[in-house]
Amino acid sequence: MKPSSFNYHAPTRVEEATALLAEHGDGAKVLAGGQSLVPMLSLRLASFEHLVDLNKVDGLSAIERVNGHLRVGAIVRQAVAEHSADVAASVPLLSKALPHIGHFQIRNRGTVGGSIAHADPASELPAVALALDATIEAAGPGGTRKIAAADFFVSTWQTALADDEILSAVEFPVWGPGSGFAVEELTRRHGDFALAGAVVGVQVSGDTVTKATIGLFGVGPTPLRASAAEAALLSGADAAEAGKVAASHISPVDDIHASGAYRTQVTAVIVRRAIEAALKEARS
Amino acid sequence: MSDEVVVKLNVNGRDHKVLVEPRKLLSDVLREDLHLTGTHVGCEHGACGACTVMVDGAAVRACLLFAVQVDGSKVVTVEGVTPTDGTLNPFQQAMQDCHGLQCGFCTPGFVVSMTSYLDDHPNPTDDDLKIALSGNLCRCTGYRGIINAARTAAGLPVPANAADGSDH
Fold it and tell me: Where would one find the signal peptide in this protein (chain A) (predicted)?
C-alpha cells in the first residue's frame, strides 16, 4: 500500500513542466490534486519514474471571464470553483456538478483540470465539459493548442493530450438568460462514482426549448452526448420521452457494481429527472 | 530508490524538518517521523478518512498527499485541535457526550473533519451535516452517536428517537 519510488519535480513555469514531460516521455506523470493518481500509485495500479507536480506552476489557478467563456486554470481546486460566485453565475452546471465529487476533503485538494485530464468515464466534470462544448487548452513544448471537448475524451482514462502536454485551462461557454441546468446521478453512497449520471442544460423561449444539451457519465468508455435525445427535446418531446431516447442509444457494460441493463434503465429515469429540473429552472 | 528530500512543516504550531523519500505520504511522515500517531491510517487510498488533517486550513486526506508536496505548509493534526487549557473543543466534547466513539479508530478523522467543517460552516442544516460526515467511515457503524455529536456541536436539535442507538 505504498507507492513505488519516483523522482519528484516541482516546476514553477509551464515551459519547465512540459520540458520535463518531453524529456521523460511516458515515464513521467503529471500530478495536480492527486486525489485519483495517488490512490492508483499506492495500490500499485500505476507507477512512474517521474512525477511532475503542477501545484507550484505560476498562472494555472485563475478563474476569469474571457470572450464569452469562463476560463478555469488547470489547478483551480474543486472546492474553490464550488464556492466561486463567478462559476455559479457563469457556468451553473459546473457549480451543480462539483458537490457530487467525492467529499469536501477530496475537493479541497482535487482540481477541475485534473479531473478532466484524468478522464474517468464515471466522473462528473468530463461530462460537464462535453455537454457544454468546453474547450480544453493544452500546453506543450511548442506552445498551446485548443481541443474541443468532443475530440478530447478518447477512451477510459485516455485523452487527446500528448505525452509532453499538460491541460493548462478549460474554457466553459457561458449561456444566456432563460437557461436552466441540472445534474442527476445514481450512486450507492454520496460521493461514490456514479452507476449512471446525467448533466443537462436547456434554454427556453416561452414554451419552446431552443437549446438543449445532455451529457451522460458512467455508461460508456468516455462521457457521452445524448445527441438523439437532445434532438428529440428540441422537436417537442417531453422529458420522459427524451430519457427513453437517451437510454436507447447507449450500451453500458456489466461490472461488479451494476449490470448494463440496470444502467440503461436508470439512465432513462435520471435523464428525465435532470431535464425536468433544468426546465423548471429555465422557466423560473 | 530516489534521493531523499528535505521537507519543512509547521505541525500544530511547531516547526519540523525531515529528510524523506518523495514517495513518503504525509500520513506516514506524521506518524513515523514526527511520532504524531493520532493521525490514523486505515485504507491508505482515500476512502476511509481516518487520516484527515488540515493543511493550510483545509481538511484533506493525509494519505493522498506526499509530504514533499506540502513543504512549507502549516499542518494541524488531531493533536492540535484541542484548546490549550486542557478542555475539549465543541465537537470533541459532543463526541464524548453523545457516545460518538466505540473502538475509536476512526475518531481522529471525524474530529479533524468536523472541527474544520464547523469552523467554516457555523450554521449547517441537518442534511448539510450528514453530507459533511459522508467522507469518513466508522466500521463500528456508530454513526448515530457521531451524527448526534455533530448536531450538538452545531447547535441543532437531536431528534428524540435518535438519542441512542436503538433504532439502528
Answer: none
